[in-house]
Amino acid sequence: MQENHVTAISEEHEQTCWGCGLRLLLVSYSPVFKCGWCGAITNPQNRIRKPDSTCFSLWRRIRDRFFVSVLLLFMSFVICAGFWAVYPVVFSINYFCGVFHSTITAILSLSSLSTFCLASFKSAGTPLNITWGSYPVVGKDSLENFTFCAYCEKPKPPRAHHCRSCRICVLDMDHHCPFIGNCVGAANHQYFIFFLISIVVSCSYVIGMTSYAAFHTWPSNHEPSALVTSLLLKQILSGIATSVLSLSARGIILIYLAFACISVEIGIAFLLWQQLCYIYEGKTYVNHIKGDYNMGGERGCQNILRFFSCPYLAYRMLLIPSNAAKMQESSSKIL
Ligand SMILES: [Zn+2]
Ligand SMILES: [Zn+2]
Ligand SMILES: [Zn+2]
Q1: Are residues 78 and 206 in the same domain?
Q2: If residue 196 lies in a helix (H) or strand (E), which one and from where to where?
Q3: Distance 179 CA to ligand 3 centre (A)
Q4: Where's the Palmitoyltransferase DHHC domain (predicted)?
């Protein structure tokens, strides 16, 4: 993109800056230009966006509410059914074992539900309202690299994106997540990551506990160890089938919870890994999709520490050795 300044050459192309309203004379015709006064970027493409239909907005709202309800129901089911199916086994070992696991369950349930609520109901981060449109009011460089959002009809900061589901511009937008019914942006990205971590840890715990309880409640005439040691596949399958049929409701719930949590954990662990990779690289999912690699800055662990707001000491400890190594490298080059 070429930076153009106000010139006094009358035969050049005349354009109007949306940011400050100044009429600019450009040295060459360019549909996309940057104002030399306020720094706003004018792109005629940004002006011709059709507003979303009511049906489209309604469909997205219904879809988000449906996914949020399904997720909340699933989390409540796992907590209640897990407690009902596992705890008779845990309390049968001894009372302290039961109290210990009840405390862990309460902590994990509370952290999953609270981080979900924070990620879901907290605003993802909307840009501040800024004065624009007339020359004396808009100061020099006050709209540096701002573009115009045709949906919101107001200035859009450099790292912001418009979300058509939330119908607002979101700062540092990562993506719109239908499962939390909200955008993941500057203000709730941390809560979203904590929610993913909490779900991965909770699912691992549920898988461990349900497997342990299932082993204890498995019908004694069909020992799992006997199934494992069985050589013929046909025998193993028929053994499992008869064992499942003779299981109680509690046993079926245990098996269902274990398999459901394994599937959820695989999906969420992959999403968490992908998110951490983007944070490490200093970009968001939207930047990745749009190929705005210059927006993110330098990749490195400092991005992860900054994201989690780690104490200054940890930040320094991580950066000093890498900076010292860089300095040593450059001094050896000079020698
Ligand atoms: Zn301007
Ligand atoms: Zn917008
Ligand atoms: Zn959104």
Answers
A1: yes
A2: helix 189-217
A3: 11
A4: 146-290
| Neighbouring C-beta atoms of residue 41, cutoff 10 Å | 22
Instruction: Decide which of 280, 300, 324 is a domain's last residue.
Output: 280
Residue 121 C-alpha to ligand 3 middle, in angstroms?
A: 12
170 Cα to the center of ligand 3, angstroms:
8
Residue-number span of the structural domain to which 98 is assigned: 60-124+189-280
Which residue in this structure is represented by tokens 């990620």? 119
Report yes or no on 286 lying in a domain.
no
- Dist. CA 163 → ligand 3 center (Å): 5
User: Is 66 part of any domain?
Assistant: yes
- Burial call 278-291: b when 16+ CB within 10 Å, e when fewer: bbebbbbebbbeee
**What is the domain count for the chain?**
2
pLDDT tens over the chain, length 335 residues: 444 444 444 456 788 888 888 888 777 777 788 888 888 998 877 766 677 788 888 899 999 999 999 999 999 999 999 888 888 888 888 888 889 999 999 999 999 999 999 999 999 988 888 888 888 888 888 888 899 998 888 899 988 999 988 989 999 899 999 999 999 998 999 999 999 999 999 999 999 999 888 887 766 555 555 555 555 566 656 655 555 555 677 888 888 999 999 999 999 999 999 999 999 988 888 888 877 655 556 777 888 888 887 655 555 555 544 444 444 444 444 33
Element (H, E) at 176: strand 175-177
193 and 92 in a common domain: yes
Residues with CB in 5 Å of ion ligand 3: 163, 165-166, 176, 183
